[in-house]
Structure formats: structure tokens, C-alpha cells
Amino acid sequence: MNKALTGLGLAMRAGKLVTGDEIVMKAIRSSEAKLVIVAGDASANTQKKFRDKCGTYKVPLMIGFDRERLGSSVGKPERVVLALVDQGFADMIRKAYVKTSEVEYIE
Questions:
Q1: What is the pLDDT of residue 65?
Q2: For the Ribosomal protein eL8/eL30/eS12/Gadd45 domain, which residue ranges apply (predicted)?
Q3: Terminal-residue alpha carbon distance, the chain
Q4: 69: helix, coil or strand?
């Protein structure tokens, strides 16, 4: 399995990852989110919403993988948006993401 996806599973088990549209949006607004990940197969509207919000609050954003792989990596059904709330995990995932070709967008 991809190192980035494995890292997401570790972050979930450590309680350093939040998932779900509203919860992630709240984490962005409160500056808790250190990295937001949006599925590559999310709707254009969802991608734009999180791209704009992350840009406003200066939170790094990644768009990549698909919702099934993101969900299975954290032990849940399909997930469209995730946020890491720990800087160490965020740095680890960013480094692992850079090495994969499945990422469409990194900001």
C-alpha cells in the first residue's frame, strides 16, 4: 500500500485526523487543520469550495487518490475530504504524497 495512505491510517488511529465536510470546514476555520486532503474524484464544486477556503485560511491542500482509497486507508467507507490536525503527520503525508504520481494538485 502507498506510504501516504498508510500514514493516513496511522493518523486516524492516533486521533489526529478528522473527516467529513462540516468537521473539516470547522477545523480549517479554527486553524486546527494542518493539511486538507480532497479526493481526486470529488465534485468540481467540492474541490473549489475547499481550495477557496484553504486559500483564505492559508491551510495546505492536496487533491488526489479516489474516495474509496481514502476511505479504506482510514478504515471507513468512502471519504471525500480529510484534515490532519497534527503538524508531524501533515509533514509525513506531504513528503509521501510528493513521491507518488496519483496526486493531481498540491498547494
A1: 87
A2: 7-89
A3: 24
A4: helix
CATH number where 16 lies: 3.30.1330.30
Name the domain count of the chain. Answer: 1
Closest CA to 95 of 69, 59, 60: 60
State which residues form the domain around 30.
3-106
Bridging pattern class, strands 61-64 and 103-106: antiparallel
Q: What is the pLDDT of residues 15-74, one digit of tens each?
A: 999 999 999 999 999 999 999 999 999 999 999 999 999 999 999 999 988 999 999 999
Residues 104 and 40 sit within 8 Å (Cβ to Cβ): yes
- At 56 the pLDDT is 95
Instruction: Identify which has the larger pLDDT, 64 or 7.
Output: 7
